[in-house]
Amino acid sequence: MKAKTKPMQGSMGMGKGVMVGGAMMTADKDIVDNAMGSSDHTTLVAAVKAAGLVETLKSAGPFTVFAPTNAAFDKLPAGTVNSLVTPEMKPTLTKILTYHVVPGRLMASDLKNGQTLTTVEGETLTVMKSGNSVMLKDAKGGMSTVTIPNVASSNGITHVIDTVLMPAN
Description:
Elements: E1 17-20, E2 23-26, H1 31-37, H2 42-50, H3 54-58, E3 63-68, H4 70-74, H5 80-84, H6 90-98, E4 101-103, E5 116-118, E6 124-130, E7 133-137, E8 143-153, E9 156-161
Parallel strand pairs: 3-9
Antiparallel strand pairs: 1-2, 3-4, 5-6, 6-7, 7-8, 8-9
């Protein structure tokens, strides 16, 4: 299933944007403000708020965020999301969310097949590339595909993914 993207003219999308979840993601907004506009990322935004990561992801960065869609969260076992956003599960939720963030501003073209990315959480993701397709292998062997690459924000880059990545612990 391929996501529909509408790349805009401009130098690497600066000033223009990419449509994600029915909203234009623009480089003048930070990662959180862009995500809040996407109807496909309401679960992620709620999780970021529950984990207390809003201020971090609004800071200067730069960050590369692999942003799971609502459909990605829906693939988790029933009840997982509701349990993760409870106060008791905040440490686990924070660990999972920070596993989706890599320091720096990495465009899809910067990602190389077999490359290891160290996440903010501390564990690694492995990049798998096939043609123009970018996939990520998590610590448990799970695979996620980038469905919309290179969404520019003022403090980093977001790549929309179709599966929640899981750290080893």
